């Protein structure tokens, strides 16, 4: 196999490169847009052929004809707070369309990052077998992902394999440079380290207690395991949810983080910014039936298991060495 990984210096993308290396694959091209960040550190212990700057990639894409078997497209602007929709449209929609067309022309596999943000407030549920045209994302990021999912559905000419993953709330190693967009576990760990306590948003809906808003938190190691399964089963194509299928509260997450650090929970509740209140999701839970029906049998990390592995084997270890 020879693989292009876009976003390969980022959080999920660099974990994909690690997965490929563990599979014995080193014929890898990493595409990213690092600029003045420390994301390059995510590449230092990986084996790959070349790093290609994002803005040069599309000009070079045709030169890879006949040379690669898979494109794992994790590169995107993933900021749910991004207000420049022209930027989102270019980077999350048009860029992805160009990769699709290359994969069609070369009849290779394309594995693409969609997002659970396409489900909007979840008023229609979180079922990846539903008609996606009924979905109404709450932000420009989610809409840019929805646009590609809708465009892809209409295409007659298709890659040899196409997998789209609707990622839910992913956490785990290598998200250290995502700043504000890093997972709640990452921010909770750092907040506890700095202050000894964690603040969670109060609830503004009577049916939810403070801190008991629910999310489907999925460990990045499970993301990689599912991706490996898809690469080993090229007859499977489709748009799939990728969560755990079990919604857990932010309180559970904060408690698990404290306990993974060997500390007693010290959790307080704070006001949610008014700018978030109207667009805030109180519940997400992936329907995982479609993935199971496709043949994926592996057990997912529980929130406690994933948090313990992440905190003890990565976050605390990094803290010791810094």
UniProtKB/TrEMBL annotation:
It comes from Lacrimispora amygdalina. Its cofactor is NADP(+). The gene is hldD. Binds 1 NADP(+) per subunit. The keyword NADP applies. Catalyzes the interconversion between ADP-D-glycero-beta-D-manno-heptose and ADP-L-glycero-beta-D-manno-heptose via an epimerization at carbon 6 of the heptose. Belongs to the NAD(P)-dependent epimerase/dehydratase family. HldD subfamily. Its EC number is 5.1.3.20. Coiled coil: none annotated. Contains a large N-terminal NADP-binding domain, and a smaller C-terminal substrate-binding domain. This is ADP-L-glycero-D-manno-heptose-6-epimerase.
